[in-house]
C-alpha cells in the first residue's frame, strides 16, 4: 500500500483558499463542555485563518470577533433526536444545518446530541442522490500508521446488504480524501475471516462486495484487525459498529489510566522518565481528540460529529477536518462515485 502525497500549495495559495471558502458553522451550544470548550476551540481555529460562523443564543459571551448566527433553542443530549429537530426549529443544530443548505456555510460541526446532529443534517441538507442511507464514519487509531475508517458507527442499527456496499464505497472515498490512502483496502466485519462466516447479512454482503466496482474488497476481518493496519476501511451495521467503537474507547482509556497510575508510583519513577518520551506519541495517536470527531457520509454537505465530551483541542481538530473535507471536495467525490456505480 502506498500513501498518496497530496499536492501542497505555497502559503499565499492556502491563504487565498481560506479567504474564498465559506465559513464552517459551529454549534456553540453542543456538548457536555459547551459553550466554553467550543468557543475556546473556535477561537483557536479562527486564529489559524479558518473562517467560522458560530451558531448560538443572542448575547453569547466570549466569542471575540467571530460572527454569530442567532438561534434561540438548544437540543439537549437526552432529547429525542427526530422529535427535537422537528420541534426545535430554531435550535443551534438545525440552524447550523440550514446554513450549509442555504450556502451560508461550507460545513457544520457539533459535539451535541449525535442523533439530532444526524437528523438535522439529513432533514435540512438532504441525501446525495442515489445514497440509500447516510453512515457515520469514525477514524480508529492505528499506532505507526494512518487510522482505519469504521462505518457505520451508529447511524443505522439495522441495514441491508446493498447499504453496506455503499458504506464501503463512501468509506473508501473518505479514506483517500482525508488520509491519502490509495485504493483503500475494504474489509467486512464478521466473526471469522473465512467467506462463509457470519450471519445472513454478512454472507449476502460478502457476495455483493466481491463483485462491487470501485471497491478494493479484501474479505472478512475481525474486531482484532481494526488497529493493526491490515485494512483501511471496515464496514458493518451501526449497532455493531457503535458497540465496537465504545468497547475500543473504554479499553484504551483503561490501559492509559493504568499506565499513568503505575508511573505515578515512586518506585517506578525512573522507568516513567525513560518510557514517557516514547509513550507520549502513542498517547497522541490513541487520543480521540486528535481526530476531532466522526463524519456523516452520504448527506449533501460536510457534517462533523464530535464527541460529547470534546475539549477545545478536539474542536480545533474537528474544524480542521471539516475544512479539509471541503477543500478536497469529498462530497462531490462521493456523488461521482455513487453515480458511477448506479450507471453500471
* Annotated CATH topology of the largest domain: Isopropylmalate Dehydrogenase
Q: Helix share of residues?
A: 40-55%
Number of strands: 11
Shape: globular
CATH superfamily of the largest domain: Isopropylmalate Dehydrogenase
Strand order within the widest beta sheet: 3-2-1-4-11-10-5-6-9-7-8
Order of helices and strands: HEHEEHHEHEEHEHEEHHEEHH
Looking at the overall shape, the CATH architecture of the largest domain is 3-Layer(aba) Sandwich
Low-confidence stretches: 1-19
Mean pLDDT: 88
The number of helices is 11
Which percent band covers the strand fraction?
5-15%
From the N-terminal CA to the C-terminal CA, the straight-line distance is 27 Å
Query: Class of the largest domain in CATH?
Result: Alpha Beta
Task: List key phrases describing it.
344 residues; alpha/beta; Isopropylmalate Dehydrogenase; eleven-stranded mixed beta sheet; 11 helices; 14% strand; disordered N terminus
What can you tell me about this protein's structure?
This protein is an alpha/beta fold and 344 residues long. It has two domains: 1-129 and 299-328, Isopropylmalate Dehydrogenase, CATH 3.40.718.10; 132-297, Isopropylmalate Dehydrogenase, CATH 3.40.718.10. Helix content is 45%, strand content 14%. The protein contains eleven helices and eleven strands. The chain has helices at residues 11-20, 36-47, 81-87, 92-101, 114-125, 161-179, 200-211, 238-263, 269-286, 312-327, 330-343, and strands spanning 24-27, 52-56, 68-70, 107-110, 135-140, 148-151, 185-189, 216-221, 233-235, 294-297, 302-305. An eleven-stranded mixed β-sheet has the order 3-2-1-4-11-10-5-6-9-7-8, with helices on both faces. α2 (36-47) packs across α10. The longest helix has 26 residues, at 238-263. The model is unreliable at 1-19 (pLDDT under 50).
Amino acid at each position: 500500500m502506498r500513501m498518496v502525497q497530496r499536492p501542497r500549495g505555497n502559503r499565499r495559495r492556502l491563504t487565498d483558499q481560506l479567504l474564498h471558502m465559506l465559513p464552517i458553522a459551529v454549534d456553540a451550544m453542543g456538548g457536555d463542555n459547551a459553550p466554553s470548550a467550543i468557543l475556546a476551540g473556535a477561537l483557536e481555529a479562527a486564529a489559524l485563518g479558518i473562517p467560522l460562523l458560530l451558531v448560538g443564543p443572542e448575547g453569547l459571551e466570549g466569542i471575540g470577533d467571530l460572527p454569530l448566527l442567532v438561534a434561540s433553542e438548544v437540543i439537549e443530549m437526552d432529547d429525542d433526536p427526530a422529535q427535537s429537530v422537528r420541534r426545535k426549529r430554531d435550535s443551534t443544530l438545525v440552524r447550523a444545518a440550514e446554513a450549509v443548505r442555504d450556502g451560508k456555510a461550507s460545513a457544520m460541526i457539533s459535539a451535541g446530541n449525535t442523533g439530532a446532529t444526524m437528523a438535522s443534517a439529513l432533514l435540512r441538507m438532504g441525501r446525495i442522490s442515489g445514497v440509500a442511507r447516510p453512515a457515520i464514519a469514525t477514524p480508529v487509531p492505528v499506532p505507526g500508521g494512518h487510522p482505519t475508517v469504521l462505518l457505520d458507527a451508529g447511524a443505522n442499527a439495522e441495514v441491508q446488504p446493498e447499504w453496506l456496499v455503499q458504506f464501503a464505497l463512501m468509506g473508501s472515498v473518505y479514506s483517500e480524501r482525508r488520509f491519502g490512502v490509495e485504493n483503500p483496502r475494504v474489509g467486512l466485519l464478521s466473526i471469522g475471516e473465512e467467506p462463509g462466516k457470519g450471519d445472513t447479512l454478512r454472507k449476502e454482503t460478502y457476495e455483493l462486495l466481491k463483485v462491487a466496482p470501485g471497491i478494493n474488497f479484501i474479505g472478512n476481518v475481525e474486531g482484532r484487525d481494526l488497529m493493526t493496519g491490515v485494512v483501511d476501511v471496515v464496514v458493518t451495521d451501526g449497532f455493531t459498529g457503535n458497540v465496537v467503537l465504545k468497547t475500543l474507547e473504554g479499553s484504551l482509556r483503561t490501559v492509559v489510566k493504568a499506565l499513568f497510575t503505575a508511573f505515578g508510583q515512586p518506585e517506578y519513577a525512573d522507568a516513567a522518565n525513560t518510557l514517557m518520551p516514547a509513550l507520549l506519541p502513542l498517547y497522541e495517536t490513541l487520543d480521540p481528540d486528535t481526530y476531532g470527531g466522526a463524519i456523516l457520509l452520504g448527506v449533501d454537505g460536510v457534517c462533523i460529529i464530535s464527541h460529547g465530551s470534546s475539549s477545545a483541542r478536539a474542536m480545533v481538530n474537528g474544524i480542521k477536518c471539516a475544512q479539509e473535507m471541503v477543500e478536497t471536495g469529498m462530497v462531490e467525490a462521493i456523488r461521482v462515485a455513487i453515480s458511477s456505480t448506479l450507471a453500471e
